[in-house]
Write a structure and sequence with these properties.
alpha+beta; Beta-Lactamase; six-stranded antiparallel sheet; 4 helices; 28% strand; binds methionine sulfoxide
Amino acid sequence: MGDDNKARFDALYGEIARIVAGGGDDRAQAICELLRARVPHYDWVGFYLVDPGSPRELVLGPFAGAPTDHVRIPFGKGICGQAADRKETFIIQDVSWETNYLSCSVHVKSEIVLPIFQNGALIGELDIDSHQVAPFTEADEVFLEGVCDIAADLF
Ligand code: SME
C-alpha cells in the first residue's frame, strides 16, 4: 500500500463528510459514485440492505457500476450472504477460488464486503467488486469501515 492510497482515502473522507452534511435522499448513491470514480480498483460499489420485511434477506440499494442480477440475496448465499450471516467483513482477493460466490460479471476478480450496523444491529453491507486480483489492503479495510460507520446514519 503506497502513501498515494492513504492520501486518497484521507481526501475522500473529507468529501464524504461534505456529502453527508449536504443532506438529501441521494447521499448513499453519491458516496457509491464518488468511491467508484476515485479509487481505481473499485469497479462496482453498492449497498445491500437487510429487508425489514424478510430479515434474512438482503436487497440491493444504491450502487454505482454495471447493473447486477443479484438484487435479492438470502443470508448465507454468496459472499454478501455469508458476510451478513457472520456479521463480518469478507475479503476475497481472487473470486475464482470461491465456491459459494454469486458472479455479477466475468470481469470481477475480487470483492470486499463489510457489514453496516446501527446500534449493534446489522442493517446492511457495503459491497465492492474489483477487476483486479488481490487489490485490497488493510488500508482499504480501515477506510471502508469508516465509510460504513458514516453511511449507517443514511439508512
Ligand atoms: N458477488 C456477490 C454478489 C453481489 S455482486 O458482487 C454485486 C456475492 O457473491 O455475494
